[in-house]
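Quick question about two entries, pasted in order.
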Amino acid sequence: HPVIFFDQIMASSPYAAVILAKESLAQTDEKGFLTSYIGTGPYVFDSYESGQCVTLKKFKEYKGEKKAYIENLKYFFVPDSVVRTLGLESGKYDFINDVMSSDFERLRKNDDLVLSLGDEAGSFVLLFNKRGPLAKNQYIRNAVNTALDLNGVMRSCYGAEGYTMNPSYMEEWQKTWLVDGLEKYHNINDKNKAKEILEENDYSNEVFTILSSNLSNMDKSAVFIKSELEKIGMKVEVIIVDWSTMMAYRNDADKYDLCITAMTSVPVPSLKLFYDPEYAGWSDDEYLQELLGHLNSSQTIEEALDIWNTLQLYSFEYLPVIVAGHYNSGYLYRKELKGVIENNGFYFYNAYF
């Protein structure tokens, strides 16, 4: 079948077209990851401190339009949003992403800083484990989706200004893929109806387990969701771990019912990881996968859009996930840092002080 989205898929992060040396491909570890990596752009890999920092250095032999005015780039992993922001204000960092909107008013008053806010950058996803102890039951997924105040879920993580409540799985600026009439399926927030669903299906106080990392206030959303579900009579436990541990746990079908995560935007709906039957959550529903197959083999854009309309609506019925809302890009940097490129991410070639 022709791949009408080939150019978009090739340019997207999940399946980016990358040129590699044959020699490098021959050197991989037991998981298939490269052990020899350098880079061919203005910066090359220098060092990695596990869980702490990645350092890139200027590639002096690079020939091209991109300039490495800054000798070294250090990327620090700082999961706590408060620590990130205070680190930038004190001068420890020059640039941070995932700025919490609760800080916007204060940060705008600081003439030494630049606060840059953009469009929807991705989705805040509540991933159901369809093999999980409780979430394997359709009625449980229905009850949770019916009960939650999704605006509260988003606000607890991103603050008042850092998100939008667009009900589509795709981001608002992706006009081609937006489906009309989704509002009635999203942010239902009907506790009485959710209680009825549980009673009709003889829910008997089994534990519903929420898995979250402590990254960027996701744990606060987990606590909020726990409170919401307790209001409809569910017994809830929350597991909060660091990001790498969370990624390991979410591949264990026995550990959780709902996993909280965030996913960056993709150009084509079928690239949403949660639709992959092998990805954590295991969306292996036969009809869902049939629709995805038709979408991926579409002959025309019009045919693809028609199939996506059906798939999007069916997703609200099957509930592989709840897309609670969409987070907006938010960057904060010191005013002496110039030339940062912001375009579905942030890039420091051509940046300078």
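Here is the second entry:
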Amino acid sequence: GLPWIPHPLRENRGEVEAALKGELPVLLALEDIRGDLQVHSTYSDGKNTLEELWRAAKALGYEYLAVTDHSPAVRVAGGPSPEAALKRIEAIRRFNETHGPPYLLAGAEVDIHKDGGLDYPDWVLRELDIVLVSIHSHFKLSKAEQTKRLLKALESPFVHVLAHPTARLLGRRPPIEADWEAVFAKARAQGVAVEIDGYYDRMDLPDDLARLAYGMGLWVSLSTDAHQTDHLRYMELAVGTAQRAWIGKERVLNTLPYEKLMAWLKARRGV
């Protein structure tokens, strides 16, 4: 007598009880996604130019693609200096003027330093359309130290998204330890979204933490963390993780049309 339960929910996490009460969620679907919010280009460690990324996004029917090259701290990624970052932002803006939809967002994936400071100064951050912050170092700090680090990073008024929050690499590196309820509460208070990174060796946030964050009322950002155009297909993995986390299309940044997404990003800064 139960209603049909979508396959991603079949984890014995309350789906039977929800079905009996008629409270199963309407899950996010791949066709709800209007763009990708973390992609890298040749300005850091990506393999493709702005033109090539634009063509790939157009082929997928996307409305937008966030070009979020690394900041300089990840040395192997070759991210631009603050001065070069401003030139990159200008290049993306000029590109949009000549190409039209899908629009490229001038973004950055900014490193969180050990002390919670950010790897770009405010005069760069304020010029970006979208600012992702993430951890790429000091993975073995204590739970208390890692939590303090994340909480400080989230205090910046320029941050939009906490990217691949646990920093795990499947089969290679365990997740960092942090008080995730405290981190998510801070993100919610600051109006910062959390990411589900669909790159196959990250899948981060994992479904249990994504469900916790979404249940706490946070916005969620889906990405592929693509470093070449072929990686854009990993959006299917990000959506699958979101489905296992009981996430619907509400409060998912990627489901917003371009104008509403830009309004959300500007509202984060009180613009």
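Reply: The CA atoms of residues 224 and 233 lie 8 Å apart. Strands lie at 35-39, 64-70, 103-111, 130-134, 161-162, 193-197, 220-223. Hope that helps.
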